[in-house]
Every structure is written in structure tokens, then in C-alpha cells.
From TrEMBL:
Keywords: Allosteric enzyme, Glycosyltransferase, Pyridoxal phosphate, Transferase. GO terms for molecular function: glycogen phosphorylase activity; pyridoxal phosphate binding. GO terms for biological process: carbohydrate metabolic process. This is Glycogen phosphorylase. Belongs to the glycogen phosphorylase family. Residues 5-104 form the DUF3417 domain. It comes from Thermosulfurimonas dismutans.
Length: 698
């Protein structure tokens, strides 16, 4: 009898459906609530504790819960969703990273979290999609702050057996695919991740068939070594396309998420050539059935390679297939600056009929940036579209808030959560209940931060000088500002320190105290980002600031979940127009955390005058830091702080709660992954599917 239930628990544990469905989380927590927290909600690890599992399998209450959750889960998988027949064949989604859950550490930041949200929403809509990515045994760098405040980059050593991934087998053996990197054969083992109804396949070069230097190809996300990056792009693109063919997955097209997987389009081109198409015809077929999403206006974030390296890798195209070398190299050549090398973004744009940016403002910037690729067209006719990013609401919304919405919006509100009219009902929720949940989230955030500190202190893994700087004095009763994102120059994490004396007065007001929580990693090669972190740490531990500034190290998806619901204000102040979109503010907004942001990225579309605060819609000739910092100080002093501390006799800041509700009403329906994916379907996927059908019928 118990084996039957163990099998059901394992099936649930290895499908990430449970991560965005409260019934699944509740089931695993029932095994042992304390252990569940200690294991950081790891569904695989908790099932490995067989002593506790065997004990609870004797309880009828638990067995009934297993039956119930498994029934809900199977019903979800087996019921055709609303978009099951929108496209005939799966869309292949290629991304270098996926942020699906903190126990599957194959992500670095926002790009990965967005990719994870796309797969989850595709599952919810039952849209035919298959994901391709990398298994990174070392994941992304772990962050440790040294006594001097400098970020130390620690290697991650992930135990694959502790992650919700399973090997794919062929005839009893682990399935492996291969491709060539500089004339050398490289193998990759295949792992499968179940994301509800969607499958994600991860390539892993850490296999015995490879020599040590090839096993390292998939070790770490975003390696600084240029040649290794090219090898990663080759394995992801060529290995991924080979895998789809090996598995017999007949796709309608390819969606390339940023330029890292761009070589998937080259691999597909070669497949068409092998089927008998000439080069120009193969290029045309790839273009008609491909979408490229660009996520950054920063040229420094684009992958470029010297031509001699690219020629060395791809010479088989002209030696084996007779493809004109110059024609191929032209696909990735910047005509304005050929000396920069072979450009992955230009390659992806030239091999994709459809290119989109991730916000309306980003579209405007990208059209100017890439106008030279379509020099025969006017700027407004540059064929770059946009789909503003969105976040997977069931993943990011607070569980208690979700239950409150069930009570007041109806139990099926998630099915129509991209409907604007639905969210008007939020005004009917009593302010007291709304504030009670938010206050609880603030308490939980402060508790989590202090428990992390306590754990590291008891493990003798924390320098005493960092205790205050990392949040020991945080108080959940204070107005709390959150700033959590990648630490890099244009994000301007230290902008609020422009006038330290003024900031000190704001934070230390005895009647209206304010605190700021920072979190985020700098790329190992980003010296400027590490200097920002060091500056934050040194100011945070300065007694003059009374512990009102904290930097929480080793930012990950778990901490992000607590931050986006546990602070009061989400601060965002990049240098415009360098913020392509930004999704952390959306995650905060759907939880009633109010956005204070410069007018850039998604906030230009999201701000309505009532749902937060905005600044920066002015021209600055030189250094804009002083003017932008002044705008932040004025908004805090004259609007944010007075509004937050205007409490009535019942202890509820009702005007603040009204603004929180407005944030949810305006952000949830318009900046959710459901709206986003529906736009991808209507603008691109259905057209790609139709084009593929026409090409196959020729």
C-alpha cells in the first residue's frame, strides 16, 4: 500500500507544478514542517528522509491528502487547456537559464526567472511548448561578503540527485547527444524537468565520454572565458536541435530567448540543408519560423567573437555542404563596424523574421540601435515589435493574499486573472484584512533575514563586523524600502547615498523611521558592481545610520519571494533608457508593494498616477545622479513617508492600503505572464505555426 503512495509522492516531487499550487506545498510540509523549512522546501530531499516518510505514511489523514493532491494534479495534466490547439506543433523555447525554483539552481537573474515564468504559463494555458537549456553543475556563483565588504565569488557544488531533475533514457542507457566544437566531439547527457504539462530538457557535458576540458563546458552559467562561451553556445544550439530530432519532437518553430542560444537557428539551417535545401532556401525557411527576443540595449552584454574563431568552428559548412563562407559570415557581421567580430544578436535577427523587445520603451531604443540592419527603411518601419514582460502570478503572489482573493473574488479567479474588470472587486476587501497580510509578510521577511544571520553566526561563517550591516537591527514596524536586483553600474544601487546627511535624517526620524534593504549579486567580472556592494556594506555598518540599512547576501529566488511581498516600497532607479523592462517591480506590485521608480522600462506603461511614484521624465545634459537623487528624496519626504505613517485610530494606514490596492488592480492583469504569453501567441506563434504548415506542404 505505502509503495503506491510513495510513487505518487515521487511523481509530484519531480513535477514543479507543486511550486505554484498551494495544495502541493501543503502536502510536502505535512511530512515534517520543521524539516521542510530546514531543507528550504526541497521536495526531493524530504522524500529521501525515509524514516520520517515511513512514519507519516501510517497516518490516514496524510494518505487522504496524498490522494486528493494527486487527483488535482492529474486532473490538471489531463484536462485540455484553452490554448491546446492554438498551434499544431510545439514551439521550441531556447534559453541559457531558467528560474523555476530555488532548488533547481540553473539561473542567474531576471532573464532566467522570466524564462521559467514563460514555461509555467505555457503549462497553465496548455500551449504546446518544449524548453531547451543547460544543466549547470556549479550553477551561478554564490555570494559571500568578506569582512572588508567585498563580494567573494564562491563556486556552487550542486548535487543533481537533490534537484527535481531526471535522466532521460534510451534503450536502458542515459540518453546523450553530441555535436562538434572545433573538430572535437562533445557529448551531453540529457536531463528532463517537468514543469506542469511542459517538458524542459537540460544538456549536461559533465559526462564520462568527454575529456576534462569538455566536461567543463556546462559547469557554470555565463563563464567569463570567451572560447568557453562560444562552446556553450554551440552545445546549446546544435545539441538542443539534435536532441529535438532524437526525441522525435516535430516543432513548428524556434523562440530564441536572448542571443546565447542563437546558434540553434544555424543548427536548424543545417538540418534543412541536409534535407536537400540550398543555403538561401534554408535561410528563408529558418527565418519564416523563428522569433528572437532581445532583452538588453547594452552592447557590452552581446556575445561577439573574432572571425577566425568562428571560421575555425564552422568551416565544415563550406567544406562539407558547399555553403559560401562569406554568405554565412555576413549573417553575423555588423556592417557599421565589421571589426567587432561575429555578433550573435545580429545573427539571430537576420535568421528570424520576428524580433521583439520586452517593453514599449525598449522597442523605441532597439529600433534606433539596430536601424542600420534595415537601412532601406524608415525608423518607424524597422521590423522590431515588442511584448512587455510579465510575471507568473500563481508563483509570485503571496499564499495568504491568494486565499484572501479566493474569498472575495471567487475560487476560480486565477482562470481569468488577466481580466481588468476582475480586479475592481479588490476594493471590496476590508482594509484590515489586507493590511494584516502585508504586516505578517513584513514580520516574516525580518524573521527570515535574522534567522539566516543566526544560522551563519552559529556556524562561525559570519564576520562580527557584518552582523549589523546584514540586517540584525531590522524592525518590521518601520517603513521598509527594498532594492534587490543585479548589482551593476547602470542599476545605480548607491544613488540614494548621493546626500548621506539628508538620507541619515530620513532614516533616523524618531517618529517616522525608515529602513532600506539591499540584495543582489555582481557578476564575477563586474568590478564596478562589487564596488557598489562594498559601499553599501560600509555605510550599513556605520553606527551613524543606526542599523537602518541592510545588505542581504546571496540573493536567490527564495529570498526574492520574501522581499517582493515583505517590503513596503520597491525602489528602481537605473540610468534611462538602459532598463529594457524590469520584472521585480511587477512581482512586488501584484503583492501590494508600491513601486517608486524612474520612468524607464515597464513603468512607463505601468504608472497611472495613483499606483506608485515616478520621477526622471526630464532631460539631463550631463551627470543625472544629483537630480535623480533629489527627486527620490523629495518623493520620500513629501509623499511616501507621510502617507505610510498616516494611521487612523484603529492602527490602519488606510490611504496607504488604498494605494496598495491600486497597485494590484493596475499591475496584476496587465503585467502577468498570461497576458504576455497570449501576446506572443497572437503576434508570433500562430503566424510561425501557419508558415511552418505552408512550408511543409510545398
Amino acid at each position: 500500500m505505502s509503495l503506491e503512495y510513495i510513487d505518487k509522492l515521487k511523481e509530484l516531487a519531480y513535477n514543479l507544478w507543486w511550486t505554484w499550487n498551494p495544495e502541493g506545498k501543503k502536502l510536502f510540509r505535512m511530512i515534517d514542517p520543521i524539516l521542510w523549512d530546514e531543507l528550504r522546501e526541497n521536495s526531493i530531499k524530504i522524500l529521501q528522509r525515509t524514516d520520517r516518510l515511513n512514519e507519516i505514511l501510517k497516518r490516514r489523514e496524510f494518505l487522504n491528502e496524498v490522494e486528493y493532491v494527486y487527483l488535482v494534479f492529474r486532473s490538471y495534466l489531463d484536462t485540455p487547456g484553452p490554448y491546446f490547439q492554438k498551434i499544431r506543433k510545439p514551439m521550441a523555447f531556447f534559453s541559457p537559464e531558467y528560474g523555476l525554483h530555488h532548488t533547481l539552481y540553473i539561473y542567474a537573474g531576471g532573464l532566467g526567472l522570466l524564462a521559467g515564468d514563460i514555461l509555467k504559463e505555457a503549462s497553465d494555458l496548455n500551449l504546446p511548448m518544449v524548453g531547451i537549456g543547460f544543466m549547470y553543475p556549479q550553477g551561478y556563483v554564490r555570494q559571500k561578503i568578506k569582512a572588508d565588504g567585498w563580494q567573494e565569488d564562491l563556486q556552487n557544488h550542486i548535487k543533481k540527485e537533490d534537484m527535481p531533475v531526471q535522466k532521460v533514457y534510451e534503450n536502458g542507457d542515459w540518453l546523450k547527444v553530441y555535436c562538434y566544437c572545433f573538430d572535437e566531439l562533445v557529448y551531453a547527457g540529457v536531463w528532463e524537468v517537468s514543469v506542469g504539462r511542459v517538458k524542459l530538457y537540460l544538456l549536461d557535458t559533465d559526462v564520462e565520454e568527454n575529456p576534462p576540458w569538455h566536461r567543463e563546458i556546462s559547469y557554470q552559467l555565463y563563464t567569463p572565458d570567451q572560447e568557453m562561451r562560444l562552446k556553450q553556445q554551440i552545445v546549446l544550439g546544435f545539441g538542443g536541435m539534435f536532441l529535438l530530432k532524437k526525441l522525435g519532437i516535430d516543432i513548428c518553430g524556434v523562440h530564441v530567448n536572448e542571443d546565447y542560444p542563437a546558434l540553434a537557428l544555424v543548427a536548424r539551417l543545417i538540418q534543412f540543408v541536409e534535407e536537400g535545401e540550398d543555403f538561401d532556401s534554408a535561410v528563408s525557411q529558418v527565418r519564416e519560423t523563428s522569433l528572437f527576443t532581445t532583452h538588453t540595449p547594452l552592447r557590452s552584454a552581446i556575445n561577439t567573437y573574432p572571425f577566425h574563431i568562428v571560421e575555425n568552428q564552422f568551416r565544415f559548412l563550406w567544406e562539407k555542404f558547399g555553403i559560401d563562407k562569406e554568405k554565412f559570415l555576413d549573417l553575423g557581421t555588423n556592417s557599421q563596424n565589421p571589426s567587432e567580430g561575429f555578433n550573435s544578436t545580429i545573427l539571430a535577427m537576420r535568421l528570424s523574421k520576428y524580433t521583439n523587445t520586452v517593453s514599449q520603451k525598449h522597442q523605441e531604443v532597439a529600433k534606433k540601435q539596430w536601424h542600420f540592419l534595415w537601412s532601406d527603411r524608415s525608423l518607424k518601419d524597422v521590423p522590431i515589435d515588442y511584448v512587455t514582460n510579465g510575471v507568473h502570478l500563481p508563483t509570485w503572489i503571496d499564499e495568504d493574499l491568494r486565499n484572501l482573493l479566493n474569498d472575495h473574488l471567487g475560487s476560480r479567479w486565477l482562470e481569468v486573472h488577466d481580466s481588468e474588470n476582475l480586479w475592481e472587486l479588490i476594493d471590496l476587501i476590508p482594509d484590515e484584512k489586507f493590511w494584516e497580510i502585508h504586516y505578517k509578510n513584513k514580520q516574516e521577511l525580518c524573521h527570515l533575514i535574522k534567522e539566516r544571520l543566526r544560522k551563519r553566526w552559529t556556524e562561525k561563517n559570519l564576520d562580527s563586523s557584518l552582523v549589523i550591516a546584514e540586517g540584525a537591527f531590522l524592525d518590521h514596524d518601520f517603513l521598509t524600502i527594498g532594492f534587490a536586483r543585479r548589482m551593476t553600474g547602470y542599476k545605480r544601487a548607491t544613488l540614494i547615498f548621493e546626500d548621506l546627511e539628508r538620507l541619515k535624517r530620513i532614516l533616523k526620524d524618531p517618529e517616522r523611521p525608515v529602513q532600506i534593504i539591499f540584495a543582489g549579486k555582481a557578476h564575477p567580472q563586474d568590478h564596478e558592481g562589487k564596488e557598489m556592494i562594498q559601499k553599501i556594506i560600509n555605510i550599513a555598518r556605520n553606527p551613524d545610520f543606526a542599523g537602518r540599512i541592510a545588505f542581504i547576501e546571496d540573493y536567490d529566488q527564495e529570498l526574492a519571494y520574501y522581499l517582493v511581498k515583505g517590503v513596503d516600497v520597491w525602489l528602481n532607479n537605473p540610468i534611462p533608457p538602459l532598463e529594457a523592462c524590469g520584472t521585480s517591480g511587477m512581482k512586488a506590485g501584484i503583492n501590494g508593494v508600491i513601486h517608486l521608480s524612474i520612468m524607464d522600462g515597464w513603468w512607463i506603461e505601468g504608472y497611472n498616477g495613483k499606483n506608485g511614484w515616478a520621477f526622471g521624465d526630464y532631460e539631463v545634459d550631463d551627470d543625472r545622479n544629483p537630480k535623480d537623487a533629489e527627486a527620490i528624496y523629495e518623493i520620500l519626504e513629501n509623499e511616501v513617508i507621510p502617507l505610510y505613517y498616516y494611521w487612523d485610530e484603529t492602527g490602519i494606514p488606510r490611504k496607504w492600503v488604498k494605494k496598495m490596492k491600486e497597485a494590484i488592480k493596475s499591475i496584476a492583469p496587465h503585467f502577468c505572464a498570461r497576458r504576455m504569453l497570449k501576446e506572443y501567441i497572437s503576434k508570433f506563434y500562430t503566424r510561425i505555426d501557419a508558415a511552418e504548415k505552408e512550408l511543409r506542404n510545398l
